Amino acid sequence: AKKGEAMIGREDFEGLDLKENQTVRLYRLDAPELSLDLTVRADKKLRRRVVILSEDDRKTLGLALCETQDIRPVEVPRLPALQRVMFEDPDAPAPGADAFRWFFFAASPPWTGTRHSLSNVRALQREFAVKLRNVYSFFTIYASIDSFDPHGHRAPVRSSRSELDQWILSELAQTVHSVTRDLDAYDVYSATQQLTVWVESLSNWYVRRSRDRFWASGWTEDKAAAYHTLYEALTTTATLVAPFLPYAAEAMYQNLVVGPAATSKQPAPESVHLALFPNADEAAIDRALSKKIALVRDIVSLGLQVRSDHKLKVRQPLRAAHVILTKVADARALSYATSMIRDELNVLNVHFVPTSEARTFVEYKLKPNFRTLGQKGLGKEAQDLKRLFAEWTAAQAFEAFTKLTSDGALRIGSLTLDPADVEVAFETKEGFAASGSRVGVVALETTLDDELRELGILRELQNRVQAARKDIGLEYTDRIVLALQGSGRVRTIAERHRDVLLREVLGVDLADTLDAPGAATASATWRDVEVEGEAVRIGILKVE
Question: What is the pLDDT of residues 276-288, one digit of tens each?
Fold first, then answer.
């Protein structure tokens, strides 16, 4: 290794959650005052727990080479202190007590081994605790902006709230029921899995789909419903996770429950750990609605998978998404969700396509599922099916797939196959990209025209302005004057979509310069950015 550089094995590199060329601090455990900030690199040939340093860096840290190169990972802790070096990322402090508690509860069932590492702790922390904190932060920011008072603002009746509100309250009641059942059975691991799914639904669907309601100006019945629904979800979640994240739950409870209760006539227990564990609101459970939203989310997930697999930028609008559902009844039930799917997939149109027209976009290929067939003792028959499926034409494969999904079974000779016994692959027609599952197939049109490219540039420009707002520390409610210089194409597109751009970035005006007479140009901030290969200079001036 070169001076100022540390080489470690690839497995350690990824396990420590490091990035190539990242700067980390190295020191000896018995002499932490001797430290060096070095650039870390991964080496595929190095074994785990092996570090290579330059001779100069070893001397600076007072380290000695190991007597043998054949060191097993389990032997490293027993080496002399002079032969061991510690890694520390100054920008990533160790997770706290809540994160470690959650890791030991949620990493794996108690009857299996748990591989412990800081990177694994952080991974589960991001999956649950960080998502919950972000939802909590979102609520507190906008509740403060709108001076929301859970006791002073009347809560709209449940039946009058939007379908999205009723769905998340149904999910909350089902989660309370499931977590209570699992804890009563001493099944802590299953309880954590239920909570993870719940926070994912709250964060990545409810809050994301409700943002415009919180951002709306004025105080409306729908905005009140959104606040009261999210408040109920968070306060119930605080008591629900208290056994798992005692410190985070207490902080949420004090701010959301104890604080507002101090100025109301409704006293609250002074700690989340003195509050009663929540009871499931059975009246709020709507399993049909849960199933319907789950189907929408599955379709959106398929569409996003298509974008990911085919490297289609999420911010680039596409012409249309063609949704081919395996069950006709599902298509009728989801006719109301067209706008929701359109927004999530960033397409201009959504079409539900009958299975009879599916071959316009994709060709089906069938393969036997060797795992399920093997469990049924059909090893030889599975090989025969593989050869048969390979000989089928696209029309035969489509006909068999349609029968399998409509009837729930496919009979071939003396065999009766369940849907789980057959794997389905898709070959897309030119101009389309598709992905599928048991739910159905989502095919996206991939051809871009001038209108779509223009909308893509607009989305990218909005992203750059929002990033600049965040970078200079503007508040969520701060209004700005936006100036654009450089690319004539980008400026033309910005002018053409002026109202949309200014609404999204909280702008009051779009200008070429911020040097107007009397303007406080000293407080203006300029950023040089690139938008789809076009050089653009963004100017932001906060409106006082």
Answer: 999 999 999 999 9
